[in-house]
Design brief:
Mean pLDDT: 78
Largest sheet: 5 strands, mixed
Oligomer: single chain
Shape: globular
Helix content: 40-55%
Distance between the termini: 40 Å
Number of helices: 22
Structural class: alpha/beta
Strand content: 5-15%
Strand order of the largest sheet: 1-7-3-6-2
Number of strands: 9
Low-confidence stretches: 140-146, 422-454, 540-600
Radius of gyration: 28 Å
Amino acid sequence: MTSSRQGDTEITDHRLFDYAKGSFKLSARVHVSHLVFETGFKRLMDQRRNIRRLERILRLQGCLRLMKENHVSVVVPQADWQHRVRPRAGNHIIPSLDVDLDYGLRALDHENLIAAARNTLAFNNQWWVVDVYVTEDEFGDRSTTSQGLQGGFLQSLRERFSNEHRPSDGLIYERINYYEGHLDGPEDRQAADSWWAALEAVAGSKKGQYLRLFFRNTSLTRQLNALLAIPGLWDGMQIGNLHKVSAMHCDEAISCYWEHIWNTFLALVGDRRPLLQLIDGVTVALIESRVPKVSEKDKKFLEKKMDEGVLFPSFPENDRQEIWSRLKEIEYPIPSLRTFFRDRLYLEVPQSVMKQLFHQPSHVDDKVTIDHGVFRLWDIDSMLDTEARKSRFRMHMLELWRFSFQYGFEMTDWKRLKLPSGSASRSSSSQQHSVHLPRGFRIPTHVDLSVLPAAFPSEIPCEYPEDESEEIAVKKRSGKPSIDTVEADRYALSAASLQERRTPTRVTSGFLRQSVFKAFFGYLMDHDPDSGQRVWPEHSQDSIPRTVEYDPSLYTQSVQTSNISDISPGSSFESAPFPTPSGIFPSQDTALLPNPCPFI
């Protein structure tokens, strides 16, 4: 750190210290019912796991309410001090506060601790110790020096965390973007640096480095930031994996999945975008991966949670009923950021196949997405008009990705999830048909590809679980599939199976494989106006062969002779031959928008 930077930090630190010292009045006892916490991104994204952890601790050791580090900081406007909030006379070690019955003390920290204490302390013993700070007004801003100090002081109280409980990745990501001016607030470099420091607080952590690498991809950053409009998603954030997201060069597929998340939750609130900010983390955790229209078990579970008031608790009751009417009609696994990071592991399998079809430039600034790279290998039919060429190429890309999903485990060294010890695989015959290709296998681009089909196992119509009364457990519905679903997955990802427009009756392995394929590659598929879902293009049978391995014309250029440097992304059909994951997300050549959700 430079001496000038340290000097600025010391000046700010000294001013805040003096302000806190002058504003502090006393430490006092108060009934916990008077403590009111802010409703914001931090609370809404929280899935309450820390509350349950603290409840266990308090039941074991009791509540240490007098310890200074457990005091709750509260702020009282000068106009209310000694009028609506008054210290009570007495000789107690810790005095008490008299608070008007209809008055709420604005508490700035320890919300989870107080929530745990409310559930742990006896009814007649629910008091806590607060540190009272009296401020000039209720809401400070930075329009004047004194108000700027007040705002900085309140921020320091609101955003402090103990070393034992660091803030979540989702909150850190949101705060860094906010203070760097990418959302709806002014840029605050010092505050942003504090959150970068929180990210790197754990010894040996490389999350700061990984996040900076991800931010270099401004298009993906902007699209991910759009989901900040839905706070409940962000407990599933994994900053430690963001560098892998951008390094896959599957921007189109990843953007499509994020748009799928956006569209799902926007539809739930009836396209009323301001209501997205009321969706909380507990709700998202309970509904993710469930398919209420397909699974009767899922529907009954969610209906019970709705009746208990657990789902969408921040919404008025009439809105909750409208949301339920839409929720129970969802016929695909409900996506979230948590399911995205799990499904990204599955996407790595076909990505490992597709990336070998072309030569990726070594310089980071010259790298292109896989779709753009493969396009350079495509033999453009000059007899077709532009729209026809786009449609033809889109069909080819869809078939390539489908084939890579279907046989990705056979063509790479990626492994499926192993069964728990003692479990038996129902698809034992799959081991007889597996193709063990050497590491680094490349689909040939300069030989007759018709030699490949004989090596691949056949598609056998089947499903898993076989028992019609069984379904895949909710926790196993995202991520890489297990070894006992090989044949069912292979058949589900066949072109013939994907073309069938049948209504599923239960959540099976095949249904899940098709769902995740559509979540990533819906931008290459047709939109069914009746169901609102992405479906296999009806005209694909006439435009491309049913199995990609029979069509050598798709690969007329060899990997060795392809020249990716000729691509000029975003400038022509050659660089953007297919529709982007929709017009919802902002274009790639614009700066980060000031609003976290560019669709509002």
